Amino acid sequence: MNRQDGTPDPRDPDLVWKIAPRTMWEQAEASGRFDGAPVDLADGFIHFSTASQLRETAARHFSGQSDLLLIAVNGPALGPALKYEPSRGGDLFPHLYGPLPLSAVRAVMPLPLDAQGRHVFPEGVA
After folding, report:
1. Is the pLDDT reported for residue 1 higher than 90?
2. Which helix (H) or strand (E) holds 73?
3. Pseudo-torsion of CA 17, 34, 99, 93, nearest 10°?
4. What is d(CA 37, CA 46) in angstroms, rounded to the nearest whole number?
5. Could you read off the pLDDT of 27-78 as tens digits, one per residue?
6. Which Gene3D superfamilies does the record associate with it (predicted)?
7. Per-residue model confidence as pLDDT tens digits over 72-118
8. 20/36 Cα distance (integer angstroms)
C-alpha cells in the first residue's frame, strides 16, 4: 500500500521498520545486504519495530542521534525468518533471524531531529 506521493502507507500492517545510522545503511546498500547493527549481531537477530512502536524505539535507543534513516520493509517478503516475539512490556516486536535482503525494502527516509532533539517522523508514521 502506497500513498499518493509514492511513499509507503504507515498504516500498512505488512510493514516493519528499522532505524539505522546513514553510514551503516549506505554500507549495506553498497554490499547488497544488511546483516544488522552491532546490537543486532550481538542479539542474533535484526531488531525491527511496528509503526506504533517506532517513537519509543527512537527515544530509547537513538535519543539525540542525528543522521539516521527510517527504513520501511515488507515483512511478508522476509518469510519465516521474521518472527514476532515478546519484548518491552510483553509487546510483540518483529525480529529477523538472518540478513535483510534489500529487495524487501520499500522505502528509505531521513529521520531528522527537531530543535528539542526529538526525532521527526514522516507524516503519518509513528
Report:
1. no
2. strand 68-74
3. -20
4. 8
5. 999 998 899 999 999 999 999 999 999 999 999 999 999 999 999 999 999 9
6. Protein of unknown function DUF952
7. 999 999 999 999 999 878 889 999 999 999 999 999 999 999 999 99
8. 9
DSSP helix/strand/coil, 114: coil
> For strand 92-96 and strand 82-86, is the pairing parallel, antiparallel, or unpaired?
antiparallel
3-state SS, residue 26: helix
Query: Quick one: residue 42, left, alpha or beta (phi over 0 = left, psi -120 to 50 = alpha)?
Result: alpha
Q: In the numeric block, which cell numbers belong to residue 90? A: 510483553
CA gap 120, 112 in Å, rounded: 6
Query: What stretch of H or E contains 96?
Result: strand 92-96
Q: What is the pTM of this model?
A: 0.90
List the domains of the chain with CATH numbers.
25-111 (3.20.170.20)
